[in-house]
Write a structure and sequence with these properties.
single chain, alpha/beta, about 170 residues, globular
Length: about 170
């Protein structure tokens, strides 16, 4: 795992973000991998005064990077992933910069509800993992049309701007 308390690492992450938007992309993704493991150094443990709350550390880091991008490239956006450690909204702040959008990796009511108290001017995207048969034949339907209809209505009601569908098929 990267040592996110290291200013050079944070700068490398930011420069990578700039590289993508300067190539012409409107939005750059920012999130942690499936196999995230926190850095073990004392500086990371002390980072942002959050102790062992790595979800909060990541939210603060991502917000700070989005604020920096807003200053340097005000027309570009950052899509931050709400996933595993960052599944719940941040505790230390209640609003994101106007260039930030959150990708909710859970799209059920209980996943969306905690975000209703958070100001996300850029809105949300949804990661829909439950429409495709990841562990079965791609020709086997995973959900009924009624399930998909109900989920889509929930996504629209909660201002989900786009959907990323996981899996084959």
């Amino acid at each position: 795992q990267y040592c996110i308390s290291n200013p050079e690492v944070r700068e490398l992450i930011y420069q990578d973000m700039l590289k993508w938007v300067d190539r012409g992309y409107e939005t750059v993704d920012l999130g942690q991998p499936d196999g995230f493991r926190p850095c073990q150094c004392e500086n990371c443990r002390q980072l942002f005064g959050t102790g062992d709350d790595w979800g909060e550390k990541l939210w603060i880091l991502h917000r700070d990077l989005a604020l920096r991008l807003l200053k340097d490239r005000p027309e570009k956006r950052v899509l931050m992933m709400s996933y595993i450690l960052t599944a719940l909204p941040p505790k230390s702040f209640k609003s994101f910069p106007k260039n930030a959008r959150i990708m909710l990796t859970g799209t059920n009511e209980e996943d969306i509800a905690p975000w209703r108290e958070i100001d996300v001017p850029g809105g949300f995207d949804g990661y829909v993992y439950n429409w495709t048969p990841n562990l079965t034949s791609r020709y086997t339907p995973m959900r009924t049309p009624l399930f998909v209809e109900q989920q889509v209505k929930r996504l629209v009601k909660n201002k989900i701007h786009s959907v990323y569908r996981d899996g084959p098929g």
